[in-house]
């Protein structure tokens, strides 16, 4: 017998599958398009027709069950599921699922059109199999698996990082050793203030000055590098390489009004739907958001994941829970208000394809749509521009650790699994994860395709958000500094310095910013009442003025540098005069964050 080459055999099978759907009444243009897409995406004609909505899944699998002479199941009671240790693999592939129904074991399968003839032959040869088989759609099986093991899965999700990488989990805010050191520093500081107040204040002044000056130098360096760097080139996917499956995670909490918009925006992503795995993640008790999601005409690539009410109600716990069912080798994270550029997945995938395995994450820039609403949104847009278009690209080019933004992150799934994924107990999971990836030898890059989102416009909403961010940064600093020598070795001296400037520097700048004004006023009062002032005090006063002015000027210059011409025309320049107020509000949020860190470290909702 002459054996056909493998490629020829595949083409023959594809042609047979295409003829099958033509015989079912699907129009030839649709079948031809599905066949071409199947060849390009390394899928099947069946999957392409389902993905494009040309076949309704429930009706189709009911019809396949009839062709095989098997019962069709449209709903599975989770209590019927035979719970096996490997059951969660059914979140990644289609069946078979074992049930215990009516006192006997039943195996639920998902048949395929290309294997229908072989399945019929097998059942004809062994008719006794029919009594133990049934058919269900992939969505029905996955829903049953999610529900059947929900309690065990959410417990594992909540505590796995703490069990496997205890030193990296924020479940315990402060270790005993850290508490002792902190108490010792506070006692020494109070003793110094009581015994030698002038020297104690001078020492505090010098430390704060170094933090402020270091942060300003980092921003100035990034600003200078942005001026001389070559233009960013958008990467393109190698032509011969098939597109991978891309998992997109969207965590929603009390955001029913945003559901139609985010569903529409995710649907607009330029990526084959047969290679998409979209998961809308919602707390099980958030009935309004769940109802809004269920009202949408979600395609077969979409799935609603309900997170059980257990443990901290945080975004990272929701992401980590849904990640258990991720089918893609690449993973993207978006928020409810995001509007990613349609080709963002294309650019990220191409960058991953061209990079080595150490490239674990790509950060897309975030742009603010409502920057003209008021001064809060305007300065927020300026801040985001400097961070995502100037500072983070500079850190990426120089191979430094990057505290990620909370959205529009793209990951290699293997890298996420290697570092333990998200920390369910860290309310600013993005900064923590970015630094943990770096400590494990991975690197983060950037892409040019932006995501548009809305800034908070009300002062209370801005304060709640900033409080959560700063509390999470404090958590992250405490976690990473549990083993300072090990952290220094894993990050390297340069990475360790950048980590201190980015995390500790941000916290110190927020908390101590008002003290800079206090120090300047004290020195000026001293000059007014004293004939002689030491050169050290004069130097510190000038450094204070430099730090205050430098903070505001670099804040404005980096944001302006990152803006497009359109954005520059939209920013009302008089809002820049309110930069000192913006920074003082950050200080208020910072002190509020410290209070909440002591009272409720893992609170992530409205605060």
From TrEMBL:
<keyword id="KW-0812">Transmembrane</keyword>
<dbReference type="InterPro" id="IPR001173">
    <property type="entry name" value="Glyco_trans_2-like"/>
</dbReference>
<dbReference type="Pfam" id="PF13632">
    <property type="entry name" value="Glyco_trans_2_3"/>
</dbReference>
<feature type="transmembrane region" description="Helical">
    <location>
        <begin position="545"/>
        <end position="563"/>
    </location>
</feature>
<feature type="transmembrane region" description="Helical">
    <location>
        <begin position="491"/>
        <end position="509"/>
    </location>
</feature>
<feature type="transmembrane region" description="Helical">
    <location>
        <begin position="173"/>
        <end position="195"/>
    </location>
</feature>
<dbReference type="InterPro" id="IPR029044">
    <property type="entry name" value="Nucleotide-diphossugar_trans"/>
</dbReference>
<feature type="transmembrane region" description="Helical">
    <location>
        <begin position="201"/>
        <end position="228"/>
    </location>
</feature>
<keyword id="KW-0328">Glycosyltransferase</keyword>
<keyword id="KW-0472">Membrane</keyword>
<keyword id="KW-1133">Transmembrane helix</keyword>
<feature type="transmembrane region" description="Helical">
    <location>
        <begin position="575"/>
        <end position="594"/>
    </location>
</feature>
<feature type="domain" description="Glycosyltransferase 2-like">
    <location>
        <begin position="331"/>
        <end position="527"/>
    </location>
</feature>
<dbReference type="GO" id="GO:0016757">
    <property type="term" value="F:glycosyltransferase activity"/>
</dbReference>
<protein>
    <submittedName>
        <fullName>Glycosyltransferase</fullName>
        <ecNumber>2.4.-.-</ecNumber>
    </submittedName>
</protein>
<keyword id="KW-0808">Transferase</keyword>
<dbReference type="InterPro" id="IPR050321">
    <property type="entry name" value="Glycosyltr_2/OpgH_subfam"/>
</dbReference>
């Amino acid at each position: 017998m002459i054996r056909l080459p493998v490629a020829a055999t595949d083409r023959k099978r594809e042609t047979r599958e295409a003829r099958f759907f033509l015989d079912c009444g699907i129009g030839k243009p649709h079948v031809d398009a599905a066949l071409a897409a199947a060849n390009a995406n390394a899928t099947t004609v069946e999957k392409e027709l389902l993905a494009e909505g040309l076949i309704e899944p429930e009706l189709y699998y009911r019809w396949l069950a009839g062709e095989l002479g098997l019962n069709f199941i449209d709903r599975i009671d989770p209590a019927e599921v035979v719970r096996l240790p490997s059951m969660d693999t059914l979140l990644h592939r289609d069946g078979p699922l074992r049930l215990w129904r009516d006192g006997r074991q039943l195996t639920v399968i998902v048949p395929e059109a290309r294997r229908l003839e072989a399945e019929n032959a097998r059942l004809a040869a062994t008719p006794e199999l029919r009594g133990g088989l049934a058919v269900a759609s992939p969505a029905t099986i996955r829903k049953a698996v999610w529900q059947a093991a929900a309690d065990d899965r959410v417990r594992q999700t909540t505590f796995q990082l703490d069990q496997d990488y205890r030193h990296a989990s924020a479940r315990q805010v402060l270790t005993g050793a850290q508490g002792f050191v902190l108490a010792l520093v506070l006692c020494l500081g109070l003793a110094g203030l009581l015994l030698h107040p002038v020297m104690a204040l001078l020492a505090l002044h010098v430390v704060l000055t170094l933090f402020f000056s270091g942060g300003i130098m980092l921003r100035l360096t990034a600003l200078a590098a942005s001026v001389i760097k070559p233009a960013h080139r958008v990467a393109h996917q190698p032509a011969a390489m098939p597109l991978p499956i891309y998992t997109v995670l969207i965590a929603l909490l009390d955001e029913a009004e945003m559901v139609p918009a985010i569903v529409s925006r995710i649907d607009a992503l330029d990526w084959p739907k047969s290679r998409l795995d979209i998961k809308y993640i919602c707390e099980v008790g958030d009935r309004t958001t769940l109802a809004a999601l269920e009202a949408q005409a979600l395609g077969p690539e979409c799935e609603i994941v309900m997170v059980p009410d257990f443990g901290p109600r945080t975004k990272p716990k929701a992401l980590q829970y849904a990640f258990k069912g991720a089918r893609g080798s690449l993973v993207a994270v978006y928020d409810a208000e995001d509007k990613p550029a349609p080709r963002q997945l294309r650019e990220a995938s191409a960058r991953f394809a061209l990079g080595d395995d150490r490239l674990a994450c790509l950060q897309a820039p975030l742009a603010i749509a409502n920057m003209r609403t008021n001064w809060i949104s305007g300065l927020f847009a300026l801040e985001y521009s400097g961070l995502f278009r100037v500072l983070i690209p500079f850190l990426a080019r120089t191979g430094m650790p990057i505290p990620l933004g909370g959205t529009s992150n793209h990951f290699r799934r293997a890298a996420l699994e290697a570092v333990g994924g998200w920390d369910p107990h860290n309310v600013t999971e993005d900064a923590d994860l970015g630094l943990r990836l770096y400590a494990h030898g991975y690197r983060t890059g950037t892409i040019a395709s932006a995501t548009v989102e809305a800034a908070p416009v009300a002062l209370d909403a801005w304060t709640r958000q900033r409080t959560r961010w700063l509390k999470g940064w404090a958590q992250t600093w405490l976690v990473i500094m549990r083993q300072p020598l090990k952290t220094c070795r894993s990050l390297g001296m340069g990475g360790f310095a950048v980590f201190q400037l980015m995390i500790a520097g941000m916290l110190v700048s927020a908390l101590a910013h008002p003290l800079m004004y206090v120090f300047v006023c004290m020195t000026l009062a001293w000059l007014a009442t004293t004939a002689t002032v030491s050169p050290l005090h004069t130097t510190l006063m000038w450094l204070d003025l430099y730090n205050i002015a430098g903070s505001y000027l670099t804040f404005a210059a980096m944001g302006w540098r990152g803006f497009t011409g359109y954005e520059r025309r939209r920013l009302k320049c008089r809002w820049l005069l309110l930069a000192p107020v913006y920074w003082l509000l950050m200080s208020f949020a910072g002190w509020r964050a410290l209070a909440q860190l002591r009272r409720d470290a893992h609170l992530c909702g409205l605060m």
